[in-house]
Amino acid sequence: MAEQSEQTEQTKIQTTFRPGHLSAAKNFVAEHGKPSKAVVEYLGRAGARVVLVGADGALGDVVVPSVSAGEALVAAVDDLESAEWDPETVNATRISSEHRRKMGRSLLRQ
């Protein structure tokens, strides 16, 4: 009985997200336009990454405990649509030169 209760608790933790995750996703949608898109990516033991693509093409992300938690997060945010990395989603992104420089700095340090 205790083992089943422990499994239920573990499942509950993996399918839920923290209030900070929800507020981050809602703030992203409010700041970058409606509708925004979200792609949930499995990260292994670390959980899942919810990549956010705003209506203006901006990118953001939220890391959650599991893929199911990411899917629940997407469902909980109004004007956030679940998406895949299809041509429509990829072409909707607008990566600024500032973001490219930021992401490329680690390559320059090697």
Run of helices and strands: HHEEEHEHH
**Portion in helices:** 40-55%
- Strand order across the largest sheet: 3-2-1-4
Provide the β-strand percentage band.
Answer: 15-25%
Number of strands: 4
In terms of quaternary structure, the protein is single chain
Summarize the main sheet: 4 strands, mixed
Low-confidence stretches: 7-13
Integer average pLDDT:
84
**Derived structural class:** alpha+beta
> How many structural units, i.e. domains?
1
Could you describe the 3D structure shown?
There is one protein chain. This protein has one domain. It has a 4-stranded mixed beta sheet, covered by helices on one side. Mean pLDDT is 84; it is low at 7-13. The longest helix is centred in the N-terminal third of the chain and has 14 residues, at 19-32. By secondary structure, the protein is of the alpha+beta class. It contains 5 helices and 4 strands. It has helices spanning 2-14, 19-32, 67-76, 87-92, 97-108; strands at residues 36-44, 47-53, 59-64, 80-82. A hairpin with a 5-residue loop joins strand 2 (47-53) and strand 3. The protein is globular and about 35 Å long.
